[in-house]
Amino acid sequence: MPTKFRPSEIIRVKGQGTKTNHYYIKNMTNNELLEYVNSNNAIPKRRLKCINELQSRKGITLVHAKELSLDGKKVIKTVTFG
Predict the structure, then answer these.
(1) Which residues constitute the domain of residue 65?
(2) Which of 24, 45, 58, 82 is the most exposed place for a label (fewest CB within 10 A)?
(3) Nearest in space to 35 (alpha carbons), one of 48, 13, 55, 50
């Protein structure tokens, strides 16, 4: 089974029946995965799934860096494209 990012949704469309939306990690863009990895409220298990998916894609290398503070805001740089 493919790795899911979040549970599937079943949407009822009036006059057409139901439609199922699946949220697989392989269908997400690099930017969406990077935003989730760098967010402060990321669930650790889901964050690790995103990191593993980014590592499996070509042209992406992970670089772990310390937290930087700019004007009181914390910025974490973890991923670069190579």
Answers:
(1) 4-81
(2) 58
(3) 50
